[in-house]
Design goal:
The chain is an alpha/beta fold. 41% of the residues lie in helices and 18% in strands. An eight-stranded mixed beta sheet has the order 3-4-2-5-1-6-7-8, with helices on both faces. The protein is globular. It holds the Pfam family CbiA.
Length: 264
C-alpha cells in the first residue's frame, strides 16, 4: 500500500491542493485538526502552508510556534512575496500565514503557491455563514464536529449552508473527541443519508480523533499535538487522515478565490 501511495503521488498532476477546515460550531476543534493535518502532511514529506484566518486569537499561528512577517492580504496586494510573509513553525515543518483583511478580486500568485504541495485553511465564516474568498476556492472542505446532538445538527446546517452558497456537492467530515469508531460510523451514516436525500450532496468520513488528553496538554505547552507527542492517539488519527488526503478527488471546477457566494 505504501508503494501504491507513492506511485500515485508521483503520477498525480502537480496541483497545490487547498483544503478548508471548518468548525461545525465554536469549539468543535477545527484548529486542532487543521494544524494537526498540516504537521502530519509535512511528516509525509510535503511542503505545507497553513493559513490562519482567526485574527482575534491567531491560535494556529501560536501553536505552530511561527512568527510570520506579513499576511495573505500583504501577498495579495504585492507588499510582500509569499515566502517572505509566511513564518516557519517549530522545526520548520510547516509555514504559517495569517490571513489579514482579504479583498475579493485579488489572488495569490499561482507561482508562489506552487512551492507548496498542500495549503490548509483554518477557516472562519462571516455572519452570513460565508467563507473568505481564499477558503471559498478550496479544492476540498473538511467539517469538524463532535459526537453530540447539537454538533451533529450544526454540522448538517453547515453542509446545507455551504452547499447553497457555493454549490459544493462533496464534504469530508472529521469527528473530534469520539469514544469509538463504531459511534463515529453510525453518526456519519445518518448524516450522509440525510444529506444525500434532502440536499443531493455526498458526505464522506475523513477520520476521527479520540478524546485524547495530550491534545489539551499540547495546547498548554503552546504546541501542536502531532509535533509535541508523536505517539499520542490523536497524532496517529491525524496521520491516518493525512495519509488518505492524496486520494481525495479535487473539485472538477477551477477554484476561484475571488468568487463571491451566490445570493440567498
Amino acid at each position: 500500500m505504501d508503494q501504491a501511495e507513492s506511485l500515485r503521488r508521483m503520477l498525480a498532476p502537480r496541483t497545490t491542493r487547498r483544503i478548508a477546515v471548518i468548525a461545525s460550531e465554536r469549539g468543535a476543534g477545527a484548529t486542532t485538526v487543521a494544524l494537526g493535518l498540516a504537521h502530519a502532511l509535512a511528516l509525509q514529506g510535503e511542503r505545507v502552508l497553513l493559513l490562519d484566518e482567526d485574527p482575534a486569537t491567531a491560535r494556529a499561528t501560536r501553536l505552530a510556534g511561527a512568527t510570520p512577517a506579513g499576511t495573505l492580504a500583504d501577498v495579495q496586494e504585492g507588499r510582500l512575496p509569499l515566502e517572505a510573509a509566511a513564518g516557519a513553525g517549530t522545526g520548520g515543518a510547516v509555514s504559517v500565514l495569517p490571513a489579514g483583511r482579504q479583498r475579493a478580486g485579488l489572488e495569490v500568485p499561482a507561482a508562489a503557491l506552487s512551492a507548496f504541495r498542500s495549503v490548509l485553511v483554518d477557516a472562519t465564516t462571516n455572519a452570513d455563514g460565508a467563507l473568505s474568498p481564499f477558503a471559498g476556492g478550496a479544492h476540498n472542505v473538511v467539517i469538524v464536529m463532535r459526537p453530540e446532538l447539537a454538533s451533529i445538527t450544526a454540522a448538517y446546517a453547515c453542509i446545507k449552508r455551504l452547499h447553497h452558497l457555493y454549490a459544493w456537492r462533496r464534504f469530508h467530515l472529521v469527528v473530534n473527541m469520539a469514544a469509538t469508531e463504531a459511534a463515529v460510523q453510525a453518526i456519519l451514516r445518518n448524516l450522509a443519508r440525510t444529506a444525500s436525500q434532502y440536499l443531493g450532496v455526498e458526505v464522506l468520513c475523513a477520520g476521527w480523533l479520540p478524546a485524547d488528553p495530550l491534545v489539551a496538554r499540547g495546547v498548554q505547552l503552546g504546541r501542536c499535538v502531532v509535533e509535541a507527542f508523536p505517539a499520542a492517539p490523536a497524532t496517529s488519527a491525524l496521520r491516518r487522515t493525512a495519509g488518505s488526503i492524496g486520494g481525495w478527488p479535487l473539485r472538477t471546477e477551477t477554484p476561484t478565490p475571488a468568487a463571491t457566494p451566490v445570493p440567498a
